[in-house]
Design brief:
single chain, alpha+beta, Pdz3 Domain, 2-enoyl-CoA Hydratase, Chain A, domain 1, 3 domains, 6-stranded antiparallel sheet, 6-stranded mixed sheet, 12 helices, 35% helix, globular
């Protein structure tokens, strides 16, 4: 016990010295208050640690307890901060490069239950019919309630060809759904493109990875080549894009804006207060654009949509976005572990924080059939930031209005016999409307030019 008390004193001394260094620019009184509070709480922690090690039914290592304490501490902050042990840190690095072994599913935690944000296109989860809003009740035979996200991801990852069983609860389904999925090497094609009609292009960004901007430039060049010249209009589809790298979101927005602010971040430290501006070189501003969004559009995709909307570079069409307006920083630790910590909020060029609110489209247009199928039943809302426990409240000026007030109400029932495919003309009402708007804009521009002459 004497040895443990000495360890406690040493730990507190280190924390006090750290506090003096950290708060060096503040008053001595403030340092003393911080040191006292730190000492009192660390003493409680070490007492609990000693009680567990002495009285728990099975022997437990100090490392196991400390790791658990770190995990719990970060989970108590917000839904996006977490501890990344070495294997999870490695997988995170693999994710941003766009290739990993797994199921292809974006998940979050809602009311302590693992919940699907969106399956990634052309992956085992997508092909098996996993839908946004599905709750993952069990992975194999293990219940997932209160299971940390990082642990759930670890369980669902694995070598190509191995199988895993998921048990899902879907709103409107009479019973639980059991799915056995075979893992594949998930190579996410972050950008897809297609010429809709002569003169009108379609770009879909599924996730923001290390090469997204390079891929987008290549696809854009291919569209112009196929079109035989410059485009007359472009649809940028960000629906069900869960986000990714902030740097790539900035570069993608920069492709279509030639000047001004794209996004800025604001945090406690000066290094977290950053402004990112557009550049004229290489920008494509000669044609009208429509951006498609929905409740699965989050984070980086909201940055792009918000920037294009604020600059009046594009019309945003669809439904309210997810509402993730925070920035996470990966802070490496020793032994190849890391902390994923929320360090700042981001704001659109006009100073809007979309945290827990989302981007309100200029034209609110639901896709009732796709929505009904995606949500697993009529009336079941997609999971959004505001539904997550411990989410940040919105901060900032110029916040968009209540989405419930913006969205028109409709009693129209979807025709379940109609085959609907997102991204396919004639079978995707939002895309059809986007193309109509682009054509109308060009007709209007021509009429104005003729009347002016």
């Amino acid at each position: 016990m004497a040895n443990r008390k000495q360890q406690l004193r040493t730990l507190v001394l280190i924390l006090v010295v750290t506090g003096v260094l950290w708060f060096g620019g503040r008053t001595v009184g403030r340092v003393s208050a911080v040191a006292k509070e730190t000492y009192e709480n660390i003493e409680v922690f070490t007492n609990v640690l000693a009680l567990v090690q002495k009285n728990y039914v099975d022997p437990v290592s100090t490392k196991q307890l400390i790791d658990g304490a770190i995990t719990g501490m970060l989970n108590a902050l917000d839904p996006h901060s977490s501890y990344l042990p070495p294997e999870m840190y490695k997988e995170l690095q693999v994710d941003t490069r766009g290739s990993f072994g797994g199921l292809g599913i974006e998940i979050t935690t809602r009311n302590s239950v693992l919940t699907v944000v969106s399956p990634i296109e052309d992956t085992p989860a997508y092909k098996a019919g996993v839908k946004p809003g599905d709750q993952i009740i069990k992975i194999e035979d293990e219940f997932t309630k209160d299971m940390p996200l990082v642990e759930a991801v670890k369980k669902m990852r694995g070598p190509k060809g191995t199988s895993i069983k998921l048990t899902l609860r879907r709103e409107g389904a009479p019973k639980l759904i059991d799915l056995t999925l075979t893992r594949e090497v998930i190579k996410i094609q972050s950008v897809k493109s297609r010429l809709l009609e002569n003169g009108y292009g379609y770009l879909r960004v599924t996730q923001f990875q290390e090469r997204t901007d390079d891929d987008l430039q290549r696809h854009f060049a291919e569209l112009e080549k196929e079109n035989g010249g410059p485009l007359s209009g472009l649809v940028l589809d960000l629906r069900n894009d869960p986000g990714g790298l902030l740097t790539q979101a900035i570069k993608v927005a920069d492709e279509f804006i030639d000047s001004g602010l794209i996004v800025y971040t604001d945090g406690r430290l000066e290094s977290q207060k950053q402004k990112y501006f557009a550049h004229k070189a290489g920008s494509h501003t000669e044609f009208p654009m429509v951006v498609l969004v929905n409740g699965g559009s989050a984070s980086a995709s909201e940055i792009v949509a918000g920037a294009l909307q604020d600059h009046k570079r594009a019309l945003v069409l669809g439904t309210q976005t997810f509402g993730k307006g925070s920035v996470q920083t990966i802070l490496p630790l020793e032994e190849n572990a890391a902390v994923r910590l929320t360090t700042a909020r981001y704001y659109t060029p006009n100073g809007r924080s979309i945290q827990a609110t989302g981007i309100t489209p200029d034209i609110v247009l639901d896709n009732p059939i796709v929505q009904a199928k995606a949500e697993g039943g009529r009336g079941f809302p997609m999971v959004r930031e505001e539904n997550l426990p411990r989410h940040f409240e919105q901060k900032g000026k110029g916040a968009p209005g209540n989405p419930e007030e913006s969205a028109p109400k409709t009693d129209e029932e979807p025709d379940e016999n109609l085959a609907v495919h997102e991204g396919e003309l004639g079978k995707d009402p939002q895309l059809d409307r986007a193309l109509e708007l682009l054509k109308s804009w060009n007709v209007f521009k021509t009429v104005v030019a003729q009347s002016g002459s």
